[in-house]
Fold this sequence. Notes:
- The protein is an alpha/beta fold.
- The protein has one domain: Rossmann fold.
- It has helices at 7-13, 16-19, 34-44, 62-69, 79-84, 87-94, 111-116, 139-149, 184-210, and strands spanning 23-28, 49-56, 74-76, 97-102, 121-125, 153-160, 170-177.
- The chain has a seven-stranded mixed sheet with strand order 3-2-1-4-5-6-7, with helices on both faces.
- Helix 3 (34-44) packs parallel to helix 9 (184-210) and helix 8 (139-149) crosses helix 9 (184-210).
- It binds 5-O-phosphono-beta-D-ribofuranosylamine (GRF).
Amino acid sequence: MLNDDLLPIVKFASNQDNEKPMIKIAIFASGNGSNAQRIIEYFQSSRSIRVAMVLSNNPDAPVLERSRKLGVPAEVFSRVEFYETDKIPAILRKNGISFLILAGFLWLVPGNLLKTFSGKIINIHPALLPKYGGKGMYGMKVHQAVIESGDKESGISIHTVNEKYDEGQILFQAKCSVESGDTAETLAMKIHELEHQYFPKVIEEEVLGNRQ
Ligand code: GRF
């Protein structure tokens, strides 16, 4: 017998979206992993997208523990495996991964991955590209450079990835002010807040807009 109170649940269960297969994404991260954690948590309640795995080049990266605690398998790979073998594309294929998210990942993405995931690799950079990007511009070095420049604003850039550091198509930017009392550390905190606020949502829009 159908109780009226149950009707919304019945509707939810037969929602068409629900019947589409989950789009699986993988996160690449080299360090702390606060963005990775935020992204995993955000998509835990999604009916379309799931973070299926986390990959890191750094066996000591806190991101590994963060992911495993949230029930997401995490794997470590070496430089040789990344640049000289097809191990990573094979793992991604085996796990049905459609998009790669770089969240604090420090290595340049090799050609085999760029080819397999053309237009489907998304990176976040902690400054307003094209300023303060390129090789060697990562983490606190970026914030230090912004502070030393005297710029009055900084922000985040979310972009697709190509064969050069930080030069893909910019999908989204958000700004914050740099005050006279700011240090690289206080600026890093402001930037992290922006990243946590926007990165998962931009990924969601991009992935849903780009699915085949
Ligand atoms: C972020 O600021 C990101 O923009 C940069 O590396 C940092 C990673 O932070 N590429 P976390 O590891 O996610 O805390």
